[in-house]
Each structure stands twice: as structure tokens, then as C-alpha cells.
Amino acid sequence: MKIIGDYHTHTKYSHGKGTIEENVVMAIKRGLKEIGIAEHGPRVLFVGVSEKKLHKIADEIENLRTKYKEIKILFNIEANLIDIHGNIDVPPSILPRLDMLLVGFHPNILPTYHYLPLAYNNFLASFSSHNLEKARKLNTMALVNAVNKYKIDIITHPGHRIHIDTGLLAKACANRNTALEINCRQGEKIKDFVEVALKEGVKFYINSDAHKPEDVGNFEEGIEIAKKLNIPKEFIVNSN
């Protein structure tokens, strides 16, 4: 299996180690056809990227496209789920500039009133089975609401650090043509999740979630999971 694009990479603009150009150069060295820069939306604590900086990233990508014509450079975003209604933190002025919309559930966000039930039950999930089940229900509801509200291309690292109903989320994503991510930073930890999701007919992207340039295009963990589960190539959107 050959992966042709890496759509979830980070740079110094958030909590990555390299520049956009360094990610692009590594993608070219790895033989990729496409590379996506997907910084966090502004509401995630400490590493969120402001609306002004998101426009700066988009402008920088436009300039790099003229320099590196051998690869397609995409302006993506890893938006954050901000409440139980499925709202996300993408500024309205950014949406028209995006090539791909990625959405992740990150616990460490600036809370809103409607986020508090999620925060409360996720915090108590490790102490109480009641709160764990309630957290699972609310987390899943929030993600499904987001999938139904927006045209989301990829749900990033689903189930990472939160409890969700895999089957319900995968079914909603399959109905809306939203893919789930096989995140190469998680490795074997998501094998069971992928196996359950696959039964719902959902499709996947294998992404590096690179936080430094040398990890761009490093898909070994994700490919290994796909092989172990015998995932048909047509279910991996960015495979060739």
C-alpha cells in the first residue's frame, strides 16, 4: 500500500518544530503528491492559532505553491469541538480559504457554557463508571452533531483521550462521507477502534500527525494497522 498524501501535519505556528516549507520539502523527499498543513483552531489552550495567524499561514502556502509546483500544498485546519451541539472554532473568514476541514476532540480547550457537561464528565470518567458512560454518550453526540452540521473531511484521532461510541460515530461519518483518521502517532492503540468502525462502511485517511518535519510522510504504524485488519485499499482515501 502506498500513501500519496499527508493531510494532518503541524508546524511552529502551533506546537510543531519546523516550518511549513520544511514540511513541504520532506513531503517531496518522501515522494508524496500532496501535503496538508493543519494547525489547531484558536480555542485549544496554549497551541491554538489565531484568526490573524491562520490567514498568514494561508498566504504563506499560496506563496509556496509557486515555488514547489511538483506537490499540491493544502491549507487545512484541525478545528476543535467546542460544545455538545457540535460547533467548532473555525473563524468564518477562514472557512472559504480552507482546502480541507479536519475536526478533533481536544479536552484542553477554552470552555464555553455548553462545553461544561463534556468537561465535567470526561474529568470524572476515570473515577466513576456512571460518568464514563455519560461522557461516552455526550462525546459521541457532540461529534455526530458536528459531522451533521459541517462538511467535515476528516475526524482526527477519534477516541484519543476521550470515550466515544465508535459504531455510532462511524455510521454518522459514513452517511455524511466524512472519513476517520488512522493516526500514526497512536499506533496499535487504535486497532480495535478501526476494526469496529470498518464494519460501518466508513472510509479512512492514514495521516502522520507530524509535529516535526522528519515525521511528515511516516505512515508505517498506520499501514501496519491497515494490513493487520485487511482494510481494502478503496477504504483508504489517500492510498494508491
Annotation field: number of helices: 7
CATH superfamily: Metal-dependent hydrolases
CATH topology: TIM Barrel
User: What series of H and E elements makes up the topology?
Assistant: EHEHEEHHEHEHEH
Would you tell me the overall average pLDDT? 95
Kindly provide the radius of gyration, computed on alpha-carbon positions and rounded to a whole number of angstroms: 17 Å
**Shape category:** globular
Gap from first CA to last CA = 7 Å
What strand line-up does the widest sheet have?
Answer: 1-2-3-4-5-6-7
Largest sheet: 7 strands, parallel
Describe this structure in a few short sentences:
This protein is an alpha/beta fold. It has helices at 20-29, 51-67, 116-124, 129-149, 166-176, 191-198, 220-228; strands at residues 5-9, 34-40, 72-80, 100-104, 154-155, 179-183, 204-207.
Characterization of this structure:
The structure is a single chain. The protein is of the alpha/beta class and 240 residues long. The protein has one domain: TIM Barrel (Alpha-Beta Barrel), CATH 3.20.20. It has 7 helices and 7 strands; from the N terminus they run βαβαββααβαβαβα. It has a 7-stranded parallel β-sheet. Helix 6 links the parallel strand 6 and strand 7 (204-207). Helix 3 runs antiparallel to helix 4 (129-149). The chain is globular, with a radius of gyration of 17 Å. The mean pLDDT is 95.
